[in-house]
Inverse folding.
C-alpha cells in the first residue's frame, strides 16, 4: 500500500483516544504476514501459538526463544505497515527480571520486531519495568494466560469470580503503570473487559473478551478456517480454507493421475 504510514505504539494510543478500533491477527511466516499487511491489518502478533498451529504441540509451553526468533524474523520481512508484536515464550522471562531483559533484547536485535508481549500481572511487573526502561515496548496479557495452562488446568473463562476479577483489575493498572503500551485480555467476561478498558489510558485487545475492548485479535488458523477442530464461542470464521485446500489438493492429485496436468500449455 503506497503512502501508508507505519503503525506504531503511539498510533494505537491515538486510535484509542479517537475511539477507532484496532485490528490484530497472528502470523508466523513471510507469506501470510505480507498478505495481512497489504490488506491493512494494524497489528501482527507473532504468537507463541506457533507451538500449537505450526509445530503441533498440545500447549504453548514447548516453543523456545530461538524458534520464536525464527518466526519473528520471517514475519518482519513481510511487513511494510503493521506493528509487529512478538511473544516471549515460556521460560524466557519468568525466573527473574535480568533473564527477561536479556530475552527481550535478543528478540528485538535478532528479529527486527517492534515490541514484545509477555503474560502475567503483578508477578512480572519488575521484568516489564526493566524491559521498558531499556527502550523496548511491552504489550501485557491478562485473563487466560496459556503459558500457565498447567497451573490453571483448564482453558475455561477466567475472572468470573469476584476475587480473581479484582486481581485482574489491579494487575491491569499495575501493567499500565509499569509502562505497557497495550494489554491483551483473553477469555474474560465482557463486562469486566469493559470496566478494565474504561479504567485504562492504554488500549486493550480482546480475544474472547467481548466487544468493549479497544481492539480484537484472533489466531489466523482459526479465523481463516484452516484449523477446523477449534470452535469456541468467541471465534468467527471468515473463510473455510481447510475445505478449500483439501478440495484443491484432491483435484491436483486427480489431474496428475489422469494425466490432465500438465497439459500442452503447461510445458516447455
Amino acid at each position: 500500500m503506497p503512502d501508508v504510514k507505519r503503525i506504531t505504539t503511539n498510533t494505537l494510543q491515538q486510535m484509542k483516544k479517537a475511539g477507532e478500533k484496532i485490528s490484530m491477527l497472528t502470523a508466523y511466516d513471510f507469506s501470510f504476514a505480507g498478505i495481512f499487511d497489504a490488506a491493512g491489518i494494524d497489528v501482527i502478533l507473532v504468537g507463541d501459538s506457533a507451538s500449537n498451529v505450526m509445530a503441533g504441540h498440545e500447549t504453548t509451553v514447548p516453543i523456545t526463544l530461538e524458534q520464536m526468533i525464527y518466526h519473528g524474523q520471517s514475519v518482519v520481512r513481510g511487513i511494510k505497515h503493521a506493528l509487529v508484536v512478538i511473544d516471549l515464550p515460556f521460560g524466557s522471562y519468568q525466573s527473574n527480571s535480568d533473564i527477561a531483559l536479556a530475552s527481550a533484547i535478543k528478540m528485538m536485535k535478532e528479529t527486527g520486531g517492534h515490541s514484545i508481549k509477555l503474560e502475567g500481572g503483578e508477578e512480572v511487573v519488575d521484568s516489564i519495568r526493566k524491559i521498558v526502561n531499556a527502550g523496548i515496548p511491552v504489550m501485557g496479557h491478562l485473563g487466560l494466560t496459556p503459558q500457565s495452562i498447567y497451573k490453571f488446568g483448564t482453558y475455561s473463562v477466567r475472572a468470573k469470580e469476584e476475587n480473581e476479577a479484582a486481581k485482574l483489575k489491579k494487575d491491569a493498572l499495575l501493567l499500565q503503570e509499569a509502562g505497557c503500551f497495550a494489554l491483551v485480555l483473553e477469555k474474560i467476561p465482557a463486562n469486566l473487559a469493559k470496566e478494565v478498558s474504561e479504567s485504562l489510558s492504554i488500549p486493550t485487545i480482546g480475544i474472547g473478551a467481548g466487544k468493549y475492548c479497544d481492539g480484537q485479535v484472533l489466531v489466523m488458523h482459526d479465523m481463516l478456517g484452516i484449523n477446523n477442530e477449534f470452535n469456541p464461542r468467541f471465534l468467527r470464521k471468515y473463510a473455510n480454507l481447510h475445505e478449500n485446500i483439501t478440495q484443491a489438493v484432491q483435484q491436483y492429485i486427480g489431474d496428475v493421475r489422469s494425466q490432465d496436468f500438465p497439459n500442452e500449455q503447461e510445458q516447455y
Notes: The mean pLDDT is 96. The chain has eleven helices and eight strands. The two ends are 35 Å apart (CA to CA). The domain at 9-237 is CATH 3.20.20.60 (TIM Barrel).
